Every structure is written in structure tokens, then in C-alpha cells.
């Protein structure tokens, strides 16, 4: 088949891989130099057409002239350029003294917010005026973007947060309280397989971000495994059920005959070890500069 099929086809032929055409296309475009880069980018934005349904029938065509199209290879980069406007607005608030953010380490590194795609983590002093100013910044961002935030969907959930301050924050931002309950009566109707799925999807996966950054205390790991164990073996009427299998067998990996419901300490150790490798490899990373500013860099790597 390799001698029959043209070299332009990369699928189903031994020795040809899915990444081959991507590499070839990239190198070809680099060679061509793409002199009309602006026109190429504009074509990605203006190609889509939209129709409006009126009384069940499409009426005319609307050609897009702005915005980001889902699936467009440029869309992630355009998204970053657009979302960076919010960072610029926040920096302007900081320079004008209207936003008090964090200064980290002995070098006093400026840290107003962190972003990952459309997720934002704010670092600011808890103050009524600062929060209101940031809400104004969001509205300015709306105006720049040409879109609106649905403030009716704004909901806040406090974790280990004083109730008085939490409800005050709800009033300031005109937000609603967000709860994440699993009603007790629903728990009784969940099968053993469903309980395993919930344990893996919620109790085991939710701490992942924490476990990736911090060493979990032994008593916390024991408490979490106890919650998982009790929920998994709970009777259908809410009564406790005798544990039919030893937990050290249940917590084994699936390949070893277990259900992958334990091993938090091992999982935590594996996730933290990754940072040592990243610290050695990512010399110019922003997070590495923060670490070096707070902690002295030892001759043999990062020790803290």
C-alpha cells in the first residue's frame, strides 16, 4: 500500500503518522512566509455566516466581522489576546491606587490575578470599594469585548469563610448563594456501582488540585478515606453496613483487582514530585520566579 497510495495521505499506512501532515503543513507555511498574515487572520474571523430563524424560516445571511470561532486553530490565541485586556484593566486600577493586590516574596513581585483560560483567581484585599471597583472593571471589559456577563448567574460559595463576611460579599456583588448538596434521601437510592462512580468522580478527584500543590496531612488523608469508606458501604436505609471486603483490597488499583478508591498519600507524592522536574526544566516560568523570590534556590534544586 505504501507504494500505491500517494505520499499526501497519512492515514492507515504503516510508517505514516497522524502528526506527519501537521508538521508538513507548518513547514510549508513557514517556507511560503505567509506575506499576507493579516488577511489570513481576518479570513478566519470573517468566513462564518449566520442565519436567523424567524417564524421557523431562515432569513438572510449575516457575515461575521469580529469574534472568536469555535474550532478555529487561531481561536485559543485570539482568546488569550482578548482575555489579557482584563489583566491590563486590573493593572491600571492597581497603578491608580484603586486595587490593592499581593506583593510576593522579598522581591515584592506584583500578583493581581491568575488566569487559566476563562478561570480567574483574584488576589486582593477584602474591601468593599476594591470589590466594587473590580466589578466596574468587569463592566469595562464587557464594553471592550462587545458582550455582556450574565450577572443573574453569579453565585458564590464560601469555603471555611466567616458567614458574616460571606453574606456581606453576596450583597456587595448582588450574587446568590451557591450550595452543592447531595440530599440524604437520594443517597439511599444509589447502587454500589453508582457509589463507586461518585467516590471516583467527587471524593477522589476534587482534592487533585490541592494534592498537586501541597502535602496532605496524615489526619486529613485518614479522614477523607474514612468518608469515602463510610459512603461506599452505607446501607440503603442509611444504616451502617458491615464492610464486606478489607479496605486495603478495595483501595487497590483496578489492575490489581481493586476499585481505585484509596491511596491519597501515594497520589499526593506522585503529583508533588512533578514540580521538582518542572523546576529543573522551566527556567523562565513565572511560578519559578515566585518560588525563587520567596525561597532561596539551593545548589541542588528547589528545597522548601
Automatic annotation (TrEMBL):
It holds the Pfam family RVT_1. Residues 1-190 form the Reverse transcriptase domain. It comes from the Eukaryota. InterPro entries: RT_dom. This is Transposon TX1 uncharacterized.
Amino acid at each position: 500500500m505504501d507504494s500505491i497510495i500517494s505520499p499526501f495521505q497519512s492515514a492507515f499506512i504503516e510508517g505514516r503518522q497522524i502528526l506527519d501532515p501537521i508538521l508538513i503543513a507548518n513547514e510549508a507555511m513557514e517556507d511560503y512566509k505567509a506575506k499576507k498574515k493579516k488577511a489570513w487572520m481576518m479570513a478566519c474571523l470573517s468566513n462564518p455566516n449566520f442565519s436567523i430563524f424567524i417564524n421557523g424560516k431562515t432569513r438572510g445571511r449575516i457575515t461575521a466581522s469580529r469574534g472568536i470561532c469555535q474550532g478555529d486553530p487561531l481561536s485559543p490565541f485570539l482568546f488569550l489576546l482578548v482575555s489579557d485586556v482584563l489583566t491590563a484593566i486590573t493593572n491600571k486600577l492597581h497603578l491608580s491606587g484603586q486595587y490593592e493586590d499581593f506583593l510576593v516574596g522579598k522581591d515584592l513581585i506584583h500578583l493581581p490575578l491568575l488566569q487559566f483560560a476563562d478561570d480567574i483567581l483574584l488576589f486582593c484585599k477584602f474591601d468593599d470599594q476594591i470589590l466594587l471597583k473590580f466589578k466596574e472593571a468587569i463592566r469595562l471589559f464587557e464594553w471592550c469585548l462587545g458582550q455582556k456577563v450574565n450577572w443573574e448567574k453569579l453565585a458564590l460559595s464560601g469555603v471555611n469563610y466567616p458567614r458574616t463576611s460571606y453574606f456581606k460579599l453576596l450583597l456587595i456583588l448582588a450574587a446568590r448563594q451557591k450550595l452543592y448538596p447531595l440530599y440524604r434521601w437520594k443517597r439511599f437510592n444509589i447502587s454500589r456501582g453508582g457509589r463507586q462512580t461518585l467516590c471516583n468522580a467527587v471524593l477522589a478527584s476534587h482534592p487533585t488540585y490541592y494534592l498537586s500543590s501541597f502535602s496532605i496531612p496524615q489526619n486529613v488523608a485518614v479522614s477523607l478515606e474514612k468518608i469515602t469508606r463510610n459512603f461506599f458501604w452505607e446501607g440503603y436505609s442509611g444504616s451502617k453496613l458491615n464492610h464486606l471486603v478489607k479496605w486495603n483490597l478495595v483501595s487497590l488499583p483496578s489492575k490489581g483487582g481493586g476499585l481505585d478508591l484509596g491511596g491519597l498519600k501515594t497520589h499526593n507524592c506522585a503529583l508533588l514530585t512533578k514540580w521538582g522536574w518542572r523546576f529543573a526544566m522551566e527556567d523562565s516560568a513565572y511560578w519559578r520566579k515566585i518560588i525563587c523570590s520567596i525561597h532561596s534556590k539551593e545548589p541542588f534544586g528547589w528545597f522548601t
